[in-house]
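re: the backbone from monday

yeah here it is again, tokenized this time
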């Protein structure tokens, strides 16, 4: 993982499966033939994830430089995952593939940081992150479109309605009753279905979204900690500090350039 330079088209037929996760400005074009022989060309950029099966003939060209994580998964490792072989090329919207798997979001954030600072990331840590990402992605690939169809889960439409509402109202009071009404469920059934779909109870999911928003705001350098906490719905800075350190392992002030630059 690291910075990927722009490159011309290159034909490949890999002996391993490959997972490509571009970040920021990075982007690549892919060409391959579908199972019916139809020629396909697609672009993979930030917020997307590409899964390439072993021995799948394809061509790739990196069109925009930027950081990216590229995980190679050998056939023996895939067999350890006890999943069917990946045949062909699959391009997913990351947010859709990660529905119901909060760990994927954390892994993507960790890999993004590692790709931006490869020299500061121990090789063993990078390999471990890649292995866990491969497991989660391969599992999600195998189950995509099925998990949300379970009886004890929200439908894709319900999940989108609730998560969109949460992200658009993080600075407000988000109660279980309010969220349950958005999908016409009782609070009891909503909590059960939401946890089955996302892996987290509603309250923990809201806290996770608030922490992600604070992290993004502070990274811009345009917010004081107190202002970012308020914009994300935390009642005070000490409340934010406690949750932020538990989730990210650091305090919010660590993301600020320097004390002199705070305003």
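seq for it, each position gets an aa:
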């Amino acid at each position: 993982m690291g910075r990927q330079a722009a490159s011309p088209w290159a034909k490949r037929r890999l002996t391993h499966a490959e997972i490509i996760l571009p970040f920021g400005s990075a982007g690549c074009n892919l060409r391959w033939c579908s199972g019916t022989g139809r020629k396909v060309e697609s672009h993979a950029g930030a917020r997307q994830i590409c899964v390439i099966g072993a021995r799948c003939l394809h061509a790739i060209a990196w069109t925009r430089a930027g950081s990216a994580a590229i995980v190679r998964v050998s056939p023996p490792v895939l067999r350890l995952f006890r999943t069917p072989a990946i045949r062909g090329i699959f391009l997913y919207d990351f947010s859709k593939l990660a529905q119901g798997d909060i760990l994927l979001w954390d892994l993507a954030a960790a890999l993004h940081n590692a790709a931006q600072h490869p020299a500061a990331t121990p090789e063993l840590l990078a390999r471990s992150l890649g292995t866990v990402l491969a497991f989660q992605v391969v599992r999600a690939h195998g189950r995509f479109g099925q998990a949300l169809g379970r009886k004890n889960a929200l439908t894709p439409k319900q999940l989108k309605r609730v998560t969109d509402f949460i992200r658009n109202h993080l600075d407000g009071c988000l109660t279980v009753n309010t969220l349950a009404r958005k999908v016409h469920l009782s609070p009891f059934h909503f909590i059960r279905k939401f946890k089955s779909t996302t892996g987290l109870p509603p309250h923990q999911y809201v806290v996770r979204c608030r922490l992600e928003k604070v992290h993004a705001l502070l990274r811009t350098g345009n917010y004081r900690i107190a202002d970012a906490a308020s914009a994300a719905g935390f009642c005070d800075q000490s409340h934010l500090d406690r949750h932020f350190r538990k989730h990210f392992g650091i305090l919010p002030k660590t993301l600020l350039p320097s004390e002199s630059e705070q305003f």
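Strands lie at 2-4, 10-12, 17-22, 27-33, 39-44, 48-52, 58-64, 66-73, 89-93. The first strand starts at residue 2 and ends at 4.
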